[in-house]
Amino acid sequence: MDRRTIRLTMAQALVKWLTVQMTEIDGARVPLFGGVFGIFGHGNVTCLSEALEAVQDKLPTWRGQNEQSMALAAIGYAKAKRRRQIMIATSSIGPGALNMVTAAGTAHANRLPVLLIAGDTFTNRVPDPVMQQVEHYGNPTITVNDAFKAVTRYWDRITHPAQILQSLPQAVGAMLDPADCGPAFLALPQDTQEIAFDYPVEFFEERLWSIPRPRPDRKASEAAAALLRTAKKPLIISGGGVRYSGAETALARFAAERGIPVVETIAGKGALTHSHPVHAGPIGIVGSTSANALAAEADVILAIGTRLMDFTTGSWTAFSQDARFISINAARSDALKHRALAVVSDALEGIDDLDAQLGAWKAPAGHMVHANELFADWNALLDKHQAPTNTPVPTYAQVVNVVNGWAGDNDTLIAAAGGIPGEVMKGWRVKAPNTFDLEFGFSCMGYEIAAGWGCAMAQDGPGGVGGTPIVMLGDGTYMMMNSDIYSTVLSGHKMIVIVCDNGGYAVISRLQQFKGVPGFNNLLKDCRIKDKDNPVHVDFAKHAEAMGAAARSCESLADLEAALEWAKGTDRTTVISIVTDAYAWVPGDADWDVGVPEVSDRETVNKARESQIEIRAKQRVGV
Question: Which backbone phi and psi does 72 adopt, to 5 degrees?
């Protein structure tokens, strides 16, 4: 029997296949791949760009300004779509590819899908060494693209055009698997891209993908229910897996009916609104006193969709030594952490199955009342720190409160690194589900503005929450990566950027000094600069205006309120800068294990070391 084929180059076949992959969101059939962020160079401009140019109506290509930031934009898109649609980022070989490694690490740490495609050297090696090739004399098969192996869930180098027949479905399968979700990487040697091959026409038939929902083992659910029924002070920790599973409503119902308070991780914040009756605040190092008090008292902790990183667990000091853990997680490795009773399952399926196993059981009636009282105390503390004062320089807490009060219900807050994460984690009061994106799993400086671009794209069509992305970041992060302000102006995707200017890397300076080291190389005044008393000040508003954005500078909360109202009516990305206090923070009460010198000539360091030893004595180790 003759098999029908179509003759295409490998690059053309890859792109054609990408355009016929579909998924379903909220009942609507949509492309699985929303588009491509691309910077073309000699590794991808002659073949891959030729293929992409021909399908612009099906798979739009957006030009980035930096390979790292465009891959971060793809991550922001995936997060806003709750992992149901994927963006692609493509670069040339060499430095262009390596620029995407940081973004790959961000996606890997946060379990987010993005397809990274980089050019590569020649498989035939005839022109070697080519420009931008890093040679390994003892192993000529190695190129810089091997660096992605450490930070991707799926990695392949396509050395023959037929290989994409097997590789592409596997890459998508990995990106959509909730247990293995993360970035996929394809290295495309220049000579392989150009080769024509007779591909079977069936390869290009439209395919509908769905995200699997693994159901729990019945014995595991029964054991989890039996353990939970022993609890007098149970606690639910809601992680990012709850949001990606679409389990927000099921979680809220389960918690309300069973009388169990819910605290949220960094990735999980936003599954519930701030004012929901079962919500007790964010947990951990950048968490609330209410959530951390409940964690310390809890006898059984139900962790759902969380990898229990150190910022959630207070480096494993937040819980009593006798507390027992039940972990519902699609990833077996996460479910098994710290000898938890593992329920390997999709969050929604795991909640529903556990609920069915519990019968009429409820937590003691006074437990939720106690949680609500603790949360009320926390809100009162927040109100105190966020209230306007007569101080000449506003605090982060005050700025967050003004922006939060002004934001629309469906506007999405985006933050990542520096001092902002702790302040928005504690002080941002979520008004609608899935409108909060804090990338603090990898704490990648530079994520914020790029992710705002991706988030703005994601608001279009099924799955988008609508509203406008609000990016909050510090001056240090702005200086590190800001070029996608220009990208959004070019593409017409509006976001509002709030730059809190506190004179450098303030929060890491805080940690440095808290552990006994004098301020050094973090705040501008503590750096080796020409004039410490009068450092050159960056005018962030003028800088943003130079990239085509609308912009204003503020010096007071009143200025900020006026600027935000003005920003509502602008027709493009708008940047607002405000001078912010580098020393005032909303207090926290969780411990964090960091390295402190065992010996030092500084008494301040020695005292910090003693404190660190006390912290480590409280840790749950291997239990």
Answer: -65, -35
**Tokens linked to 48:** 């891959």
d(CA 140, CA 294): 56
Per-residue pLDDT tens digits for 32-68: 999 999 999 999 999 999 999 999 999 999 999 999 9
**What digits encode the pLDDT tens for the residues 453-506?**
999 999 977 878 789 999 999 999 999 999 999 999 999 999 999 999 999 999
The phi and psi torsions of 261 (rounded to 5 degrees) equal -65, 150
Torsion sign over Cα 578, 584, 590, 596:
positive
Rounded Cα distance, 307 and 321, in Å: 19
Beta-strand relationship, 496-501 and 574-579? parallel
Q: Would you list the DSSP string of 574-606?
A: EEEEEE--SS--------------SS-S-HHHH
Q: Cα(240)–Cα(39) distance, rounded to whole angstroms?
A: 31
Phi, psi dihedrals of residue 37, rounded to the nearest 5°: -95, 125
- Rounded CA-CA distance 498/564 in Å is 9
* Backbone phi and psi for residue 193, each to the nearest 5 degrees, phi listed first: -60, -35
pTM: 0.96
Q: What is the pLDDT of residues 255-290, one digit of tens each?
A: 999 999 999 999 999 999 999 999 999 999 999 999
Query: Using CA of residue 368, residue 369, residue 375, residue 378, what is the dihedral sign?
Result: negative
Q: What is the pLDDT of residue 622?
A: 65
Contacts of 342 (CB under 8 A, 6+ apart): 220, 327, 329, 332, 335, 336
What is the spatial distance between Cα 392 and Cα 184, in angstroms, rounded to a whole number?
49
32 neighbors 21 (Cβ within 8 angstroms): yes
Tell the burial category of 573 from Cβ atoms under 10 Å away from its Cβ (0-12, 13-18, 19+): buried
Instruction: Name the residue among 92, 91, 116, 93 with its Cα closest to residue 103.
Output: 116
**Distance, CA of 418 to CA of 501 (rounded, Å):** 12
Which among 167, 165, 163, 166 is positioned nearest to 155, based on CA atoms? 167
554 beta partners: 578
- Six-digit token pair at 459? 């608001």
Instruction: Give the tens place of pLDDT for each residue, 508-554.
Output: 999 999 999 999 999 989 999 988 888 888 999 999 999 999 999 99
396 within 8 A of 423, measured Cβ to Cβ: yes
Residue 153 reports pLDDT greater than 80: yes
Residue listed under structure tokens 């006074």: 366
What percentage of the chain's residues is helix, strand, coil (to nearest 5)?
40, 20, 40
Please tell me the distance from the alpha carbon of residue 99 to that of residue 232, in angstroms, as a whole number: 51
* 212-to-176, 229, 347, 395 alpha-carbon distances in Å: 8, 29, 12, 45
**How distant is the alpha carbon of residue 450 from its chain centre?**
12
Q: How far apart are CA 623 and CA 324, in angstroms?
A: 9
Residues 6+ apart with CB under 8 A from 332: 179, 342, 344
The whole-angstrom separation of Cα 242 and Cα 404 is 24
Pick from 78, 60, 148: nearest CA to 114: 78
Q: Report residue 296: phi and psi, to 5°.
A: -65, -30
Which token pair is 532? 């410490």
Q: Which amino acid is at 511?
A: L
Neighbours of 534 (CB within 10 A): 8
CA 191 to chain centre: 36
The residue-averaged pLDDT of 242-255 equals 98
